[in-house]
Amino acid sequence: MADAKIVLGSASPRRQELFVHLFKNYTLASSPDELADSSLDSPRDFACKNALYKAHQIQEILNASTDIGGAIFTFDTVVEQSGATLGKPQNQEHARSMLRSLSATSHEVHTAYAVVSLQGQEILKGVETTRVWFQALDPKLIDFYILKFFIYI
Fold it and tell me: β-pairing, 106-117 with 84-85?
């Protein structure tokens, strides 16, 4: 696959760091939108559907010819607490509220991945789930975290 094109469909700095170690050359791309959260799907299934949706969105934008080899890698992460999807915080106060709700509890983080050929053929998809336990978070720690690390969408 010396001439293969690798596309990372993620704005995540951490995923970009990983791809630097996995592939000598890759291209960044992003999906123009995501699926609307659906109460018909479990949070785990929704993450998988959204990762695949993003891959197909990017594939359509790239509109690659059939003679180019390569793949598009996309991901979606969903936080689930007590069966509910938390979604992405919309602002600092929403982030603060979410962190307070996670304090001294456990939740699940579903990270879905999809790999699609440049021609749109599904190669691989799946979801990994991690149970995360938070200690009790002091309000000052929450404020510090939000001010230092929160990135607006």
Answer: unpaired
Which whole-number Å values give the CA distances from 19 to 22, 25, 38, 77, in the listed order? 5, 9, 30, 17
Residue range 32-91, pLDDT digits in tens: 888 876 677 899 999 999 999 999 999 988 876 556 789 999 999 999 999 888 888 889
Coil, strand or helix at 112: strand
Name the strand (E) or helix (H) holding 142: helix 139-149
Q: Could you give the CA distance from residue 71 to residue 49 in angstroms, rounded to a whole number?
A: 18
Q: Is 131 exposed, middle or buried (0-12, 13-18, 19+ CB in 10 A)?
A: exposed
CA angle at 18 for the pair 132 and 142, rounded to the nearest 5°: 40
Q: Are 91 and 152 in contact (CB under 8 A)?
A: yes
One of 3, 33, 67, 76 is an active-site residue; which one? Answer: 76
**Number of residues assigned to the chain:** 153
41 part of the active site: no
Other CB atoms within 10 A of residue 25 CB: 9
Output the CA–CA distances (angstroms, integers) from residue 132 to 16, 93, 110, in the order listed: 23, 22, 11
pTM here is 0.85
